[in-house]
């Protein structure tokens, strides 16, 4: 019945878009951080094309007042899901005005502490629906020119879609209004707002587009590493796609506890704070692929938008593929082909269980993103680069600022090539599974991939038969995955037999190759210890963490010196190294006994709402590792049940369910229940 209702709802709105066209929105909004609410005045210009009884605007749990059409008050119905209008409009142009307020339960999120200045407000419309915070349209086929103005504290920055046309202060000087304007229409899920204390840097592309980059004040030294290659990627896309960036400005801003890696809101990408890195973190985790992916969406998704979920690959497959093309431009053919090889492996492994084809609204994210990218790579390889570029160019220009389906794109391919797109559609888009043989045939044209596959085939050979081959690889300028694979294939070889080769491997000074040793070497031989210790200084937070843990475990007599050597480590923004250090310092008997309470309090603080979800989860896991009966951490575990990040909420929920199986914890949670805020109390009661 739920599925039938969705079909009926979709059909009903499709009927509306054929009869009514909403042209533009002007909204003056006031977010309230204390109440976690938003209110404002909205004006819609719309055109009635043919007779219609009721016009609906999606609006989830909102209150409305002062509803007027063409300057006159009108009766309306608020269903709790939509604002329904049934009088006052005429055929042709109309103007709708109203005031509204809402306390969004999703889509607009209030995180951090505004009293200390660390608070942020941000939105996530895709998959969550903008209609939870702004009366708008869940149907992607209704495209509107959105113009957002917002008033907030003057010590914060407000970001929204489009060009910032002006700002103004209120009479008291404590509130500021930011006025943003768009020129072209877009789907409602792409409307955004982000509020926080940000610093900004700008560049201008060769084509004259203003590029804005934002970070938190405390991260201002991380602009070069976080946004590395951003301008180069932007200019590459304009050249590769052959269509100028379709909007007036492009900005990027990281926010705390974002639900996903990034989101391609039109002109204004939001991405996760996790990608804000320094020079060392850059070697482990970079924003570059997400950066390129979300930027590609400005053409594929924002400029041309899929008509329905069935054609979602036209957005995610294209963005994934073009991000890979950007990486090829930056890092070369071998990198590009290795990324494709890895995704081909993943798709092949998943194909037995993941059987829903690409051209299906219920396909998995892996299918939409990675198989979609592979389908485009296969298509491009067979029609040729120039023909593919020509077809994409025509496709974008023909359907710009409209909605599209798969046949629209394939029709443009047919105009430039005699390639059999019907067979392509059957085999790559409508069939389940992954076309592994076709993929391998393309990959093997790359010499590195051919060499890599030959190396993989030698896995079962005795070490003595491939030792000279390993040495040759390590002494060559082969792409690093070849050298990684050498390390992996030596994993079970006795140390004395592989010692010389391991030494050569360490001397490559390649972060990834040395990291492979840290990952595979479970027992550290004494005569390799001095070499292994050098990895504590490798420019990789992941390598340092692995090496530190292994050394602390295998050399207990060295724990004091190891802790002293690493006492100033912090790591990523989630404080991975600091949390690891505190945990091992607390677990090491007699180490700085006078500071144990201080260490404990710091680790406990990381479990609190003052920190991001990744930090909190890591700290909770480590606290319970030290003492599984530690009750001090449990209130913060319960607090996590109300967190906006579903991954953290799931972790907290599963951990509490596990604890409730024990009478001791069950009793404690029952005692804690009356002391909790109402929202936490409701969530905990559900778990009993």
Strand content: 15-25%
What profile does the largest beta sheet have? 9 strands, mixed
Give the distance, in angstroms, between the N- and C-terminal Cα atoms: 30 Å
Count the beta strands.
23
Shape: globular
Helix content: 40-55%
Q: Structural class from helices and strands?
A: alpha+beta
Radius of gyration over C-alpha positions, nearest whole angstrom: 28 Å
- Low-confidence region ranges: 1-11
Overall pLDDT metric: 96
What descriptive keywords fit this protein?
688 residues, alpha+beta, 9-stranded mixed β-sheet, 5-stranded mixed β-sheet, globular
Structure overview:
The chain is an alpha+beta fold and 688 residues long. It is built from 26 helices and 23 strands. Strand 20 (262-263) and strand 21 form a beta hairpin. The longest helix has 19 residues, at 313-331.
Short description:
The protein is of the alpha+beta class and 688 residues long. The protein contains 26 helices and 23 strands.
Protein topology:
Elements: H1 2-19, E1 20-32, E2 37-48, E3 55-58, E4 62-69, E5 72-73, E6 76-78, E7 82-85, E8 92-102, E9 108-111, E10 120-123, E11 143-153, E12 157-160, E13 163-169, E14 175-181, E15 186-187, E16 193-196, E17 198-204, E18 210-216, H2 223-226, H3 230-241, E19 249-255, E20 262-263, E21 268-272, H4 288-297, E22 304-306, H5 313-331, H6 333-350, H7 365-383, H8 385-399, E23 402-404, H9 406-416, H10 421-430, H11 436-443, H12 447-457, H13 463-475, H14 480-489, H15 495-506, H16 511-520, H17 529-533, H18 541-554, H19 559-565, H20 576-587, H21 596-605, H22 613-626, H23 634-639, H24 646-659, H25 663-672, H26 678-685
Parallel strand pairs: 1-11, 18-19, 19-21, 22-23
Antiparallel strand pairs: 1-2, 2-8, 3-7, 4-5, 4-8, 6-7, 9-10, 10-16, 11-14, 11-15, 12-16, 13-14, 17-18, 20-21
Helix pairs in contact: 3-4, 4-5, 5-6, 5-7, 6-7, 6-11, 7-8, 8-9, 12-14, 14-16, 16-18, 18-20, 20-21, 20-22
């Amino acid at each position: 019945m739920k599925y039938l209702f969705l079909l009926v709802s979709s059909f009903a709105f499709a009927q509306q878009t054929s009869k009514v066209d909403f042209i533009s929105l002007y909204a003056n909004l006031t977010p309230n951080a204390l109440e976690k609410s938003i209110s404002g005045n909205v004006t819609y210009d719309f055109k009635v094309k043919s007779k219609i009884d009721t016009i609906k605007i999606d609006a989830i749990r909102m209150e409305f007042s002062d509803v007027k059409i063409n300057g006159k008050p009108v009766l309306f119905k608020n269903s709790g899901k939509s604002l329904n209008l049934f009088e006052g409009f005429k055929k042709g142009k109309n103007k709708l005005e109203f005031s509204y307020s809402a306390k969004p339960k999703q889509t607009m999120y209030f995180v951090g502490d505004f009293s200390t200045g660390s608070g942020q407000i941000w939105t996530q419309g895709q998959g969550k629906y903008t209609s939870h915070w702004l009366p708008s349209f869940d149907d992607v086929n209704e495209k509107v020119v959105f113009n957002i103005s917002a008033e907030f504290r003057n010590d914060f920055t407000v970001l929204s879609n489009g060009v910032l046309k002006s700002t103004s202060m209120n009479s008291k000087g404590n509130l500021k209004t930011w006025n943003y304007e768009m020129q072209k229409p877009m789907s409602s899920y792409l409307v955004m707002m982000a509020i926080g204390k940000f610093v900004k840097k700008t560049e201008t592309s060769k084509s004259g587009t203003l590029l804005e980059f934002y970070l938190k004040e405390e991260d201002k030294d991380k602009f070069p590493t976080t946004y590395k290659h951003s301008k180069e990627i932007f200019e590459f896309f304009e050249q590769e796609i052959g269509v100028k960036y379709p909007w007036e400005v492009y900005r990027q801003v990281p926010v705390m506890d974002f639900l996903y890696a990034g989101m391609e809101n039109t002109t204004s990408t939001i991405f996760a704070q996790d990608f804000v890195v320094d020079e060392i973190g850059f070697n482990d985790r970079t924003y570059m692929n997400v950066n390129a992916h979300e930027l590609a969406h400005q053409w594929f998704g924002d400029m041309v938008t899929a008509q329905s979920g069935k054609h979602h690959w036209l957005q995610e497959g294209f963005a994934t593929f073009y991000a890979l093309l950007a990486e090829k431009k930056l890092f070369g053919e071998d990198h590009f082909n290795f990324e494709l090889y890895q995704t081909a492996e993943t798709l092949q492994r998943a194909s037995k269980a993941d059987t829903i084809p690409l051209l299906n609204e219920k396909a998995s994210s892996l299918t939409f993103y990675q198989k979609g990218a592979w389908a485009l790579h296969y298509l491009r390889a067979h029609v040729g680069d120039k023909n593919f570029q020509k077809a994409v160019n025509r496709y974008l220009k023909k359907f710009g600022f409209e909605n599209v389906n798969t046949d629209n794109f394939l029709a443009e391919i047919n105009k430039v090539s005699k390639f059999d797109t019907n067979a392509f559609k059957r085999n790559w888009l409508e069939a389940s599974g992954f076309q592994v043989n076709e993929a391998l045939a393309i990959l093997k044209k790359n010499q590195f991939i051919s060499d890599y596959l030959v190396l993989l085939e030698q896995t079962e050979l005795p070490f003595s038969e491939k030792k000279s081959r390993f040495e040759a690889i390590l002494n060559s300028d082969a792409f690093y995955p070849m050298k990684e694979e050498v390390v992996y294939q030596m994993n079970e070889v006795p140390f004395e037999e592989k010692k010389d080769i391991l030494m050569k491997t360490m001397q490559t000074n390649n972060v990834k190759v040395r990291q492979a040793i840290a990952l595979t070497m479970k027992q550290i031989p004494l005569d390799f210890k001095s070499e292994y210790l050098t990895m504590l200084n490798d420019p990789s937070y992941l390598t340092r963490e692995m090496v530190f843990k292994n050394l602390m475990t295998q050399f207990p007599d060295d724990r004091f010196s190891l802790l002293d050597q690493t006492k100033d480590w912090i790591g990523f923004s989630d404080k991975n190294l600091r949390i690891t250090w505190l945990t091992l310092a607390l677990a090491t008997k007699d180490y700085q006994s006078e500071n144990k309470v201080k260490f404990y309090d710091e680790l406990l603080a990381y479990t609190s709402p003052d920190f991001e979800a990744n930090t909190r989860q890591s700290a909770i896991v480590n606290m319970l590792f030290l003492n599984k009966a530690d009750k001090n951490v449990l209130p913060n575990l319960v607090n996590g049940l109300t967190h906006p990040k579903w991954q953290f909420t799931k972790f907290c929920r599963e951990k509490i369910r596990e604890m409730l199986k024990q009478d001791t914890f069950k009793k404690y949670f029952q005692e804690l229940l009356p002391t909790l805020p109402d929202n936490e109390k409701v969530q905990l009661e559900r778990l009993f």
